[in-house]
Automatic annotation (TrEMBL):
The chain crosses the membrane at residues 32-52. The lineage of its organism: Eukaryota, Fungi, Dikarya, Basidiomycota, Agaricomycotina. Gene3D superfamilies: Spore Coat Polysaccharide Biosynthesis Protein SpsA, Chain A (3.90.550.10). InterPro entries: Glyco_trans_8, GNT1/Glycosyltrans_8, Nucleotide-diphossugar_trans. The keyword Lyase does not apply. One of its GO terms (molecular function) is glycosyltransferase activity. This is Nucleotide-diphospho-sugar transferase. It comes from Dendrothele bispora (strain CBS 962.96). Keywords: Membrane, Transferase, Transmembrane, Transmembrane helix.
Length: 366
């Protein structure tokens, strides 16, 4: 009796959406009817078998909730009594010449957005040429050599060889304190600043990052792990030393290098940043509607799936000429049926503005 009452009772209307579900109300009632039929056919037994198999044979994604290690003794909130707005910095990184123009465009976009912080660029001295440094310095980056931090377990299980350099990112904690900064934002070279984000320098916690996004859904439909392309952090020599001491002993998945380690290290102490501070292009693939909403307020765009300045066959020591880079960007526009054409053009326009402002200095580097 209760089942048929549920079928006949009025259903709540869903909120408006652009998704293609014009008959959602009918589908709900139909689904209820189907469940009633399945109950007669013994679907509960079938479901139990499926769930049992899923539990034992499906590999669960890594989560610090399931693999928690007590390796972080840093307080959640830093003492703000000596905080100064003049001691803030934006960090990026340069590990090969092939990303020199990308980091230059990023730097120029930071300045164009009137971000009120110093721009600090750590680089691996043995892997970056004077030409690449010249290009980066021409837009205002203050370059600092740092030592390579080798991957743990000699790089075993790494998703791609180019991730070998990524643990070097941890140097920003040490370098930031050495240079006198107590508030900082880090951005990968494949990001672009669209709007000012000075509010992040008033971030009271030790560490924050945006949720990661993947092209395909997992069983839960979301991930609690964060993406390490944009970080808000408190520079600290002691934090750096603590992280380094635990690289080899912490039990984290090695495939995605420093991102996996930082997820393990900060775990439940990390603060989630809104997607506007790390607009991962995978979001557009997953939800055009969400992406359209994000573009109204996006501060930092992250070129995760397509890079208008780089392709995976480029030698690490290669620096494209401005003309070669423009040609590559135009080709990239056609990727994935032109899905990311608008975002690629945002980057190309940013490159054009940089060349208008700093073209003479950049061309002189060649």
């Amino acid at each position: 009796m209760g089942f048929f009452k549920l079928l006949s009772s009025p259903q709540y209307e869903r909120l408006p959406t652009n998704a293609l579900h014009p008959k959602s109300r009918f589908t709900l009632n139909k689904s209820l009817l189907m469940y009633g039929m399945y109950g007669v056919l013994g679907i509960s037994t079938y479901t139990a078998i499926v769930l049992w198999c899923s539990h034992f044979f499906t590999k669960k994604p890594y989560s610090y909730l399931d693999n928690f290690e007590h390796i972080n003794n840093i307080p959640l909130v830093r003492d703000e009594r000596h905080w100064s707005s003049s001691s803030s910095a934006v960090f990026s990184s340069l590990y090969s010449d092939s990303f020199a123009l990308a980091v230059a465009v990023l730097g120029h976009s930071i300045r164009r957005a009137n971000v009120s912080a110093s721009m600090i660029l750590p680089y691996i001295e043995t892997q970056v040429s004077s030409k690449a440094l010249c290009i980066a310095q021409s837009v205002g980056w203050k370059t600092h050599p740092v030592g390579l931090i080798a991957p743990p377990r000699d790089g075993e299980d790494m998703a791609t060889p180019r991730f070998r350099d990524q643990y070097t990112k941890l140097n920003i904690w040490k370098l930031g304190e050495e240079l006198g900064f107590n508030s900082a934002v880090y951005m990968d070279a494949d990001t672009l600043v669209l709007r000012n984000f000075d509010e992040l320098f008033h971030f009271p916690w030790e560490f924050g990052a945006g949720l990661d996004v993947f092209p395909t859904k997992d069983a839960r439909g979301f991930s609690i792990n964060f993406n390490a392309g944009v970080l808000v952090f408190r520079p600290s020599q002691s934090t750096f030393e603590d992280m380094k001491s635990k690289l080899e002993t912490s039990n984290f998945p090695l495939a995605h290098a420093e991102q996996s380690f930082l997820n393990a290290y900060f775990g439940g102490k990390s603060v989630r940043l809104p997607f506007a501070y790390n607009a991962n292009m995978v979001i557009k693939q997953r939800s055009r509607e969400l992406w359209a909403e994000l573009t109204k307020e996006t501060r930092i765009l992250h070129y995760t799936l397509v890079k208008p300045f780089w392709h995976n066959k480029m030698p690490e020591e290669m620096i494209l000429t401005p003309e070669e880079l423009q040609a590559l960007a135009e080709t990239t526009e056609t990727r994935d049926g032109g899905l990311y054409r608008e975002e690629i053009r945002l980057w190309s326009n940013a490159f054009d503005r940089m060349m208008e402002d700093q073209g003479d200095a950049i061309n002189a580097c060649y």
